[in-house]
Input
Amino acid sequence: MNIPDFDPYEVLGVGRDANAKEIKTNYYKLCLQFHPDKAGPGASEKFHQIQEAYELLSDETERARYDR
Output
């Protein structure tokens, strides 16, 4: 995601020191809360941000690159 203000840690509600389990737990909670089928079509952008944040932080290589 090429948005300058995009902070995957903030999107997932975790700190920079969060481990993989914490990231995954928050990801699942947020997916349930903001899934467009549950929260309505207005939540699709937030849901997409959650997906992007998780993809970035769940990949150790991408996370290390982002943290630089």
Notes: The domain at 24-67 is CATH 1.10.287.110 (Helix Hairpins). The CA atoms of residues 30 and 50 lie 7 Å apart.
